[in-house]
Amino acid sequence: MPDYTNRTFICSVLFLDIVEYSARSVAEQIRLKERFNAVLMEAITGVATDDRIILDTGDGAAVSFLGDPEDALFAGMSLRDSVSGGQELTGGGPRLQIRVGVNLGPVRLVKDINGQPNIIGDGINVAQRVMSFAEPGQILVSRSYYDVMARLSEDYSKLFHYEGAKTDKHVREHEVYAIGVAPGSLRRTLPPPAPKPAMRLPSFRIPKLPRLNPRRWAAALRVNSKLLLAAPLAFTLVVGTGVVARGYRNSDGEGKAAAAPKAEPRSTAVQTAKAEVAAAPKAKEPETVVATAPASSRDAVIHVVALPWAEVYVDGARQGVSPPLRSIPIKPGRHRVELRNSSFPSHVQTVEVKPGAEINIRHRFRR
């Protein structure tokens, strides 16, 4: 797990208690705890290790979910269903019964005396108080947890039943909700993954070559053959002219430049070849197509921290609930971010986002 020591999180805490654990013998306690540990690990199998912290409380456990609040809901229902009407222990011992309490609140991650991760704070304290109000086999949740889950999905809101206000031993009042039996059609509603930008390959255009008349092709071939025949003659004339132009010495020893001989008129074949080359149409050079990747603007990210919680809207479109929502990918430009909490006035903020930028929006709702 990454080192998150001395950081405060708003997370879901699942507090579990084995009913009448302390009244059992040591041998029965060991077997009850083994059965309890097995069903607990099975219930949280789908939660990533970095998204959960498990604390052994002796007669139960406390599990903090740092990711989705739905993790606590489905883990609690899985535990309840696994032990409801459970089998008795081998040898005629008592069957396992548990009570479950769930809360959404602030916790601080610290290290215990053994250097292992531990959690403290009001989030875990309230979860324990809510659990103490539950009957064997019952799941109770706090008002803060209910407010978040009821707004994630209408199916989730139908699971909760208001149980009233309860007062703990510290004379603190808690509004609690019980979780009923989930229908078989209930599934987790996870947001769809963000679509990946499609990479479009550039199109290539093959240039068309000009169509030549067969007679033109024949004329071009004749021109080329005549040029090849005339090339040695032209080379000889150039070299010979250079040798004669070097000059000679007369009998007086004075150097005189020899008069260059008059150039002979070009042959009729050479003149005819040049004329036909000039008359022949030149083939167009094929165009060169350079493949370039289309420019794509870099997405930006908006980080949202809302306390105690808020529904996040960007340009009027709902993005989710924070927490657990932390980051929202967004296109560059001007955007309107709105944080809604049913108990407070909405918070609206307009941001100008540049490509690849990270915008932090923090807001605490106050009365």
Please, could you describe this protein's structure?
- It is built from seven helices and 17 strands.
- It is α+β, with helices and mostly antiparallel strands and 367 residues long.
- Among the domains are: 7-179, Nucleotide cyclase, GGDEF domain (Alpha-Beta Plaits, 2-Layer Sandwich), CATH 3.30.70; 300-364, Immunoglobulin-like (Sandwich), CATH 2.60.40.
- The strands form four sheets. Strands 1, 2, 3, 4, 5, 6, 7 and 8 form an eight-stranded mixed β-sheet that branches. Strands 13-12-15-16 form a four-stranded antiparallel β-sheet, covered by helices on one side. Strands 14-11-17 form a three-stranded mixed β-sheet, with no helix packed on it.
- Helix 6 packs across helix 7.
- The model is unreliable at 247-261 and 283-296 (pLDDT under 50).
Please write out the topology:
Blueprint: E1 7-18, H1 26-43, E2 52-56, E3 60-65, H2 70-83, E4 98-111, E5 117-120, H3 122-132, E6 139-142, H4 143-152, H5 154-157, E7 160-167, E8 173-179, H6 214-244, E9 248-249, E10 255-256, H7 268-279, E11 300-307, E12 310-314, E13 317-322, E14 327-330, E15 333-341, E16 344-353, E17 358-364
Parallel strand pairs: 4-6, 11-17
Antiparallel strand pairs: 1-3, 1-4, 2-3, 4-5, 6-8, 7-8, 9-10, 11-14, 12-13, 12-15, 15-16
